[in-house]
Amino acid sequence: MTIHEDSKLTTSDLAKASPRTEEPGPKGVVSLADAHTVEGEKEGVFSRDEVNELRPKWNAIQTKFIDEPRQSVQEADGLVASTIQRLAESFAAERGKLESQWAKGGDVSTEDLRLALQRYRSFFDRLLSA
Question: Which residues have C-beta within 8 Å of that of residue 62, sequence separation ≥ 6?
Answer without folding.
Answer: 72, 76
